[in-house]
Amino acid sequence: MKAMVVEMEEGVKDNAASPLKSRLTNQSRALFSMRLLQILLLFLVLTLGISVVGIHTIKFLRIQHLPPVAPTTTTLISNYDHHGTVTLESFIKPPLNVWHTMNDSELLWRASMEPRRIVYPFKRVPKLAFMFLTKGPLPFAPLWEMFFKGHEGLYSIYVHALPDYRSDFSRSSVFYKRYVPSQAVAWGEMSMCDAERRLLSNALLDISNEWFVLVSESCIPLRGFSFIYGYVSESRHSFMGSIDEEGPDGRGRYRDGMEPEISLSQWRKGSQWFEVNRKLAVEIVQDTTYYPKFKEFCKPPCYVDEHYFPTMLSMKHRVSLANRTLTWTDWSRGGAHPATFDKADITETFLKNLPEAKACSYNDERSQVCYLFARKFAPSALEPLLQLAPKVLGF
């Protein structure tokens, strides 16, 4: 009996002690879990820290070994100043260097951007953009230097040469760093118009360029800069020939595949050498309707540089064209190319007679001045031209 009582009392004591033992066990488990969680969190933090440091190290090492990248026109004409603030000057300031890394599609797209408001919110001095289409060298650069001297701020210069040509003009030259990114050009093919559109696009990046004159390396100016600037700026028309010429060299070059965009009655012919205002320049670079037709169907003996711009602009802006060129050329000798004049041809009488024309219209009135430029001149003509220019040409 006593033994049973003792067993019962011991059972009571064991039952009383079990809740306490259970609480101690739960606390130990909780403490262990907390420490395990802390260790895991610490491990994650360390892992994340090592990853971040590794990424930055890789980026740093990669940047150190990257080759230098040439600045693009987009960066040169950035919408932000060096503090990252948008300013008006950042929109209107032209690039110091015309070189860039844009391809033709990017360049044409960028050049087609134009403000819609007529009034400029800053003092804008309209400039003449002279665009030289050349194989490379500019044999008459000294003559043009004389022509431009003293008229800074009223002109811009852009030169398109063959891709492998490298100019060597000094810093003091007006042609220094004025060669634009170029591509190969074939006479009479669409690549010629591509080069002209490339020149226009580069010139349009300067918001102050208002008139665009296309000349070649064999062209010379026939008047002083002030006269030419006034003549072009005061004209109500752009100067591009656009003639409906019958015969094999006119309508005979039309192809039926041009329809329906271009009909035979709309087909026009004109000189490759032109002067257009900013509105028409934008019209040329933004065209995607007529360009594919001319590229596919106008191939020699259809010379696209004589038909593409004259046809397109006469269809959309006929009243804006003077329907003549400003560049005199002698075709009297016949053949596919005009006459070339060398040193023996350059006399005072010859130069005085060049600007003369039987009849032309300027602002819808009869004018005695019809040509401002002339071609085609051989490099040997430079020396006598430099001697006679101050007296005869008015430089």
From TrEMBL:
<keyword id="KW-1133">Transmembrane helix</keyword>
<dbReference type="GO" id="GO:0016757">
    <property type="term" value="F:glycosyltransferase activity"/>
</dbReference>
<keyword id="KW-0808">Transferase</keyword>
<dbReference type="InterPro" id="IPR003406">
    <property type="entry name" value="Glyco_trans_14"/>
</dbReference>
<dbReference type="InterPro" id="IPR044174">
    <property type="entry name" value="BC10-like"/>
</dbReference>
<dbReference type="GO" id="GO:0016020">
    <property type="term" value="C:membrane"/>
</dbReference>
<feature type="transmembrane region" description="Helical">
    <location>
        <begin position="36"/>
        <end position="58"/>
    </location>
</feature>
<keyword id="KW-0325">Glycoprotein</keyword>
<keyword id="KW-0472">Membrane</keyword>
<protein>
    <submittedName>
        <fullName>Uncharacterized protein</fullName>
    </submittedName>
</protein>
<keyword id="KW-0812">Transmembrane</keyword>
<dbReference type="Pfam" id="PF02485">
    <property type="entry name" value="Branch"/>
</dbReference>
<keyword id="KW-0328">Glycosyltransferase</keyword>
